[in-house]
Amino acid sequence: MAQITLNESLVKYETAILVSSSFSSNKSPAKSKVLPPLDKGASTRTEDYLNRILPPQEIVENKQLWVRYVSPTPATSADVTNLRILLDKKLEVLGARDSGIC
């Protein structure tokens, strides 16, 4: 698989899945789609709710459509520690202050 460059995110995603090998679109795939309301009678999985809250990333590269879903696996304490360190680094780069308007 080719290297897929994405916007940096603090959300943990799974490995990208190839959806279409000959994809061409006039519109940007990043535009959000309106989802239908949840059926109260239908049984839905946790991943369905997760995908509605945090929609999957759609990436078009070399006329191929790739999709990455948010990982449903619980975070470990090491994941939380690494995430805190990454967030602190991003805030430092952006020049955020401890208090007041940044």
- Please tally the β strands and state the result: 3
Query: For this entry, what is the oligomeric state of its chains?
Result: single chain
The rough form would be described as: extended
Give the helix tally.
2
Question: How are the strands of the biggest sheet laid out side by side?
Answer: 1-3-2
Distance between the termini: 40 Å
What string gives the helices and strands in order? Answer: EHEEH
Strand composition percent: 5-15%
Give the tally of structural domains: 1
Radius of gyration: 17 Å
Low-confidence stretches: 1-5
Describe this structure in words.
- By secondary structure, the protein is α+β, with helices and mostly antiparallel strands.
- The protein has one domain (17-94).
- It is 25% helix and 14% strand.
- The protein is built from 2 helices and 3 strands, in the order βαββα.
- It has helices spanning 46-53, 77-94; strands at 17-20, 57-61, 64-68.
- A 3-stranded antiparallel sheet has the order 1-3-2, with no helix packed on it.
- A hairpin with a 2-residue loop joins strand 2 (57-61) and strand 3 (64-68).
- Residues 1-5 have low confidence and may be disordered.
Structure at a glance:
With 102 residues, the protein is an alpha+beta fold. It has helices at 46-53, 77-94, and strands at residues 17-20, 57-61, 64-68. Helices cover 25% and strands 14% of the residues.
Keywords:
single chain; 102 residues; alpha+beta; 3-stranded antiparallel sheet; 3 strands; 25% helix; 14% strand; extended
